[in-house]
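tool_call: predict_structure(chain=1)
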Amino acid sequence: MKRISFLPEPKKRSLFLILLLTFLFSLGHAQSAFKVEVVGKGDPILFFPGFACTGDVWKDVTRELAKRYECHVFTFAGFGGVPAIGKPWLPKIKDAVVQYVHDRKLQQAIIIGHSLGGTLGLWLAATEPTLFKKIIVVDALPCMGALMIPNYKADDIAYDNPYSKKLLEMDSAAFRAMAAQQTAFMMLNKEKQSQVVDWIMMTDRSTYVYGYLDLLKLDLREDLVRVKIPVIVLAATHPDKALIEKTYNEQYARLGDKVFYYAEHSAHFIMYDQPQWFLSKITETVK
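tool_result:
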């Protein structure tokens, strides 16, 4: 049987080339925004680390959950030796995660995110309300900037400012000293502090500076009304539990289906300060 062609050969080749380049560009964009390690089999769970951390921050959790779930463990561009991407960093990562989920046909995946990763999970749930099943947020807020900046206005935050310039020009010794000071505040487990400092030192400096500004600019407090899936929040209580509870209640006020669990005697890295409590809560809440 003679094959019928509806397009002249040169036009068919051109169309094929355009489609191929579009596919390769989309695939390359999704892959360049992060590295993913997949372990285990079962229903999918996406693990997002906090700012400057690698996917290894989840190692103790995924060792257990991989027995029953397919764990997709992310390390974002600019962290842990993953090549950096350009600005705006966080929106590119968000779009690439959506593409990743669609490309792999991950049905109703659960998101577990620490810090930046938790905020990213909330953003995804607000913009893709039917794509995911549940979010477990680990010590993260819908608006980090409001917690850190007096009279917060997202539009006032610019990439180019004196503090950014100072960080970009800081030598390694001064940067390590700053990282050690920050980590000591965020973690009570002294044995694990050096690991987080090492991760911070591995970051691409521009990503460390400008990526964090992307996070500070993100204000999801009003957008939480669009989140239609359950959200479980695991929150640290150090250094002031009453103030922390007040902050969480205020920032999550517009979110409907939510549950808070507070980790006693824990700072920001709950997985290191209270590992048994943390693993128990994660195991319980993914069901």
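agent: The first helix runs from residue 9 to 32. Proceeding to next step.
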